[in-house]
Give the backbone structure.
Amino acid sequence: MSSPASKQIDTATLWGGKISPLSISYGKLMMWFFLVSDALTFGGLLTSLGFAKFSNPETAAHWPAGEEVFTHLPFTHGHYPLIYVALMTFILIVSSVTMVLAVEAGHRMDKKNVIKWLVFTVIGGFIFLGSQVWEWSTFIAGKDGILSTWADNATLAHNPYGPTLYADFFFFITGFHGFHVLTGVIFNIIILVNAIGGTYERRGHYEMVEKVGLYWHFVDLVWVFVFTFFYLV
Amino acid sequence: MVRDDIIEYSLDGHHSEEDGKKIRKKIWQVTAILSIITILEVGVGIAYPKQHAGETAWFFIKWGYIILTVIKAAYIVMVFMHLGDERKSFKMMILVPYLLFILYLIFHLSYEGIAVGEIWNTYRK
């Protein structure tokens, strides 16, 4: 027969921690696991870009450099190599910063600042998406810059800038990333609405902002690699 | 709404107004670092395009880009995503499997790609 504990164990002997050795909530843990798998998907896309270049010496010799293809700026006609892509990179980094400021405000239960920074983040996301639409249409239009002349347009089967594979990888990698940005903006809008409605105020913490923030930073992180391995190298 | 039947980790992230000031300062510092690196990369890309840079110069520029990118990624993951503030066991749980798999993938695809390219070069004539 077991008997009830008669001896009190002092707190120094007793493990003072909580249950999880990771000291992290379920939602945050699962978001990190998802991001690891998603990062492997993007890793697969970028390494296959490397494989395509290494295994086709003839193709790689004609592979265009980013400075030759992406030379346009909206509303201008000059020659500005990579400037707009750099601007897009910068916009995404800034929207990542506003997101981390929203998370920080959430840790202080500062509802007003959470809303303010989340609004900036959503705006940054929309600017990036619009930029990508513009970049795609400029890329598809080809060297003459006119969308309706199909002979000169970039498609999955034809590419005026160089090897067809270049256009294929451009559409696939930036498209897959752009889809992630779109999802991120939708998530940001949902938590913005919740924050305005006071859902997290009532819950007692703004961890949902932190979890969606992880996803948003990940989107920025992926773009850093896309920028290097697709546009620069 | 506080429930006492579940262990709550979500409140662990809370901090005071003074800590918030320090954290914001750090955030702006990291922002400056990330911006400077991006400007540097674009500047090099415009000043030394691949077509005009020599083979040796391009080798160093290319690896410079890759190193700068990894530095940027480390700042984003460790500061913006707060992985640097998590427990060590969790940090290892995320980083070790990912690095293991991605290095494996990079090694195999580049090694195999180069081998296929060499065979292509040798036998196509």
